[in-house]
Amino acid sequence: MSHQTGIKASDELKDAFANAKNANNNYRLIKVCIDLGIEKLVPKDHCEASGTWEEDYGMILPLLGDKDPCYLFYRLDEKDAQNHYKWIFMRFSPDHAQVKHKMVYAATNTTVKTIFGTSQIKDELLATSKTEMTFDGYMRHREHEEAPAPLTASEEEQRLMREEEGPTDIGSSTKQSHLGGIAFPIRSEAKDKLLGLKNGDYTYVRLCVDTTNEEILLDDADSIGTNALPGKISSEKAGYHVFTFKHTHEGDYQESPVFIYSMPGYKCPVKARMLYTSCLGPLMGQLAEEFDIQCVKRIEINSGDVLTESFLMDEVHPVRNLHRPAFAKPKGPSGKRGQRRLLKDDDQ
């Protein structure tokens, strides 16, 4: 709040906010920073809308610095009852920023929202990395926000009772909500190959999302080693990859199923990025429940170059810090204690 930092809006920022809300203008994004020299909020940059809000989302990353916090107001295409656009308020506070700057931006958070007008802010996002500021990062934020709250003891008991009563008939093409996402049906060809992977006939299965028919399709199935895995990752389209990682760890031979989600940045259409992100959690649930493929690790990448054997070993068997410092007994007071004193009882 303003009394916490004493930072107020500059006249330039007030004008920028007014222009952004003007129906004759076409603002999509406003970047706001704190000028610590004059202790005021100032506009740093803005961008005009050129497509839908999903298509324009890529304009955010070029405005972000590695060590510089900032505020962003991003306009949606949705309007309220008064015909005013709704906005997303974002506070970007990178991990490598100075602690003092992080604290100032956090303390001024309410001030900048109040100056803009909280009634037009539909959603808020706090991000500490550029990954969280991507479109996929925002979709994961929305998925988390919309996920149901944990069940109470009584609600959990009712759920178990419903399950014991027997399953409800559901058509094969029905889309079900699972873990806050969307569960698309898996085509029979893909199911056959997944069962083959479970039985050891294959070590690699690639799946893709049919965005038109809303199904999970088979894209590839093969028996490969780790060295051939990077070549299976497309640089043009997204994919889900189930790979049996055969290796030896601490003298024991292991075959560990690994789930890899590859998304090559903004080369994919917006709809595809949204659907792949939304189907991610439910698909992993389907693999475990329908095919008994218990993936020990989920990895998200944008390039196959990182998929080396050492990388997979670190992901599947992360190094644990076993060093536990012994408890250090606190030192007594320094200097001489002086002579002990004899205390008398009041009765003596």
UniProtKB/TrEMBL annotation:
GO terms under biological process: actin filament depolymerization; barbed-end actin filament capping; positive regulation of neuron projection development; regulation of lamellipodium assembly
A Pfam family matched in the record: Cofilin_ADF
Keyword annotations: Actin-binding, Cytoplasm, Cytoskeleton, Repeat
Location of the protein in the cell: Cytoplasm, Cell cortex; Cytoplasm, Cytoskeleton
SMART domains for this protein: ADF (SM00102)
GO molecular function: actin filament binding; actin monomer binding
Disordered: annotated span: 143-174, 323-348
Domain ADF-H: 4-143, 181-317
Compositional bias of kind Basic and acidic residues: 156-165
Entry GO terms, CC: actin filament; cell cortex; myofibril
SUPFAM superfamilies membership: Actin depolymerizing proteins
Gene3D superfamilies: Severin
Its job: Actin-binding protein involved in motile and morphological processes. Inhibits actin polymerization, likely by sequestering G-actin.
UniProt family annotation: Belongs to the actin-binding proteins ADF family. Twinfilin subfamily.
Complex formation: Interacts with G-actin; ADP-actin form.
Name this protein carries in UniProt: Twinfilin
Organism: Patiria miniata (Bat star)
